[in-house]
Design brief:
OB fold (Dihydrolipoamide Acetyltransferase, E2P); 19 strands; about 30% helix; 6-stranded mixed β-sheet; alpha+beta; 2 domains; binds adenosine-5'-triphosphate; 5-stranded antiparallel β-sheet; Rossmann fold
């Protein structure tokens, strides 16, 4: 099922602030889309509006060509998975999976068949007779996914489904969600505030801030070609280093820095992994190495510039020590520029 928002706005209360502002997007059939953004940006509200558990103040919502704006969750036939699993503790795994089918009046033979099929899909067959309390968090979430899929939903909605799991299980389960989504082909919307999670499993990531879509594109594009300063800084860890243009323009070719300024560029950004250690005059920054962190294969250097600005540098060969004065440069193609409103400024030469 394709989902389309047409200028949707949401205000919980007349006197309250507008939580989502004039939101328009398309979610392609059979795709997995993540909604990513900081706390309070409107991720769950967007998901609830797709589900039909909430209704917009303005705008229309379409499932394929059908206007579902006024239809509730049952009419929209959505499947939902929550952070806390929301399983029935007194029912077995099998009964939990079959529950929506029982409510729909499906006969027992068919219910059992479907429960087995879904248990196989989410790889929980050997636990069918257990109660949720006897399962690990990851296994409980598998049951919740199977239950959400039981009625062959038009769309599967997941609100921070992995938040209660430890780091290793989180990684494992996100791969599982991707596999299950691919096998079933069900259009899936996944809410998370974890960028790695969103980038690793999604066909598209919708980045939200303060109820406004900042960018809606494939994960690689978000990282390599951010539309604005918010997206550039939100994605990537450590965060992109940001400089005032005037602090950095001397190291840019004059014709390019002139053109960028003409276009309104006031800030320049360089990702920590784009720096190259150099002794040449082409260095963009020079500073004192304040800290070197080596954790497994990760290398991170914190450099303090003369101005006092701290710069993060990652993935470089470390042939210097803490306290050393070191210089770094980068190719102009690795630099991002932004105007005073935080919008990206691109000159063809700087691309
Ligand atoms: N029932 C409600 N009544 C009034 N305001 C609400 C209600 N639910 C959410 N809000 C407000 O709407 C805004 C968006 O909330 P929402 O839960 O959608 O954000 P979120 O991005 O999912 O946040 P989080 O990551 O913290 O869960 C917040 O400012 C929140 O305070």
């Amino acid at each position: 099922m394709e989902v389309r928002f047409n200028s949707v706005s949401m205000q919980y209360d007349e006197n309250d602030k507008t939580v989502l502002k004039d939101m328009s997007f398309d979610i392609e059939n059979h795709s997995l889309v993540s909604i990513l953004g900081p706390s309070g940006c409107g991720k769950s509200t967007t998901l609830m509006l797709i589900s039909g558990l909430l209704f917009p103040t303005d705008g229309q919502i379409f499932f394929d060509d059908k206007d579902v704006t006024k239809k509730d969750a049952v009419q929209r036939k959505v499947g939902m998975v929550f952070q806390n699993y929301a399983l029935y503790p007194h029912l077995s795994v099998q009964d939990n999976i079959m529950f929506p089918l029982k409510m729909a009046g499906v006969n027992k033979k068919k219910r059992l068949e479907k429960a087995q099929e879904l248990a196989d899909l989410v790889q929980i067959s050997e636990h069918l007779n257990k109660k949720p309390g006897q399962l690990s968090g990851g296994q409980q979430q598998r049951v919740a996914i199977a239950r959400a899929l039981a009625k062959e939903p038009s769309i599967l909605l997941m609100d921070e489904p992995l938040s209660n799991l430890d780091a290793k299980l989180r990684t494992e389960m996100r791969e599982e969600i991707r596999r299950i989504q691919k096998e079933t082909g069900v259009t899936t919307v996944f809410v998370t505030h974890d960028q790695e999670e969103a980038l690793s499993i999604s066909d598209k990531v919708m980045v939200l801030n303060e109820g406004v879509i900042q960018q809606n594109s494939n994960p690689q594009q978000l990282y390599d070609d951010p539309d604005n300063l918010f997206v550039a800084r939100f994605l990537g860890s450590p965060e992109m280093n940001i400089f005032e243009m005037e602090d950095i323009e001397d190291s840019l070719p004059q014709n390019i820095s002139g053109r960028l300024k003409q276009q309104g560029a006031v800030l320049a950004g360089i990702r920590p992994e784009s720096w190259i250690h150099t002794n040449s005059e082409e260095a963009v920054i020079t500073g004192i190495t304040e800290r070197i962190e080596i954790v497994g294969k990760e290398r991170k250097v914190s450099l303090v510039l003369e101005s006092g600005q701290m710069v993060d540098i990652a993935d470089v060969e470390i042939n210097f020590r803490e306290g050393d004065m070191v210089s770094f440069g980068t190719d102009i193609s690795n630099m991002f520029f932004f105007d005073g409103d935080g919008n990206r400024v691109v000159t063809t030469d700087a691309e």
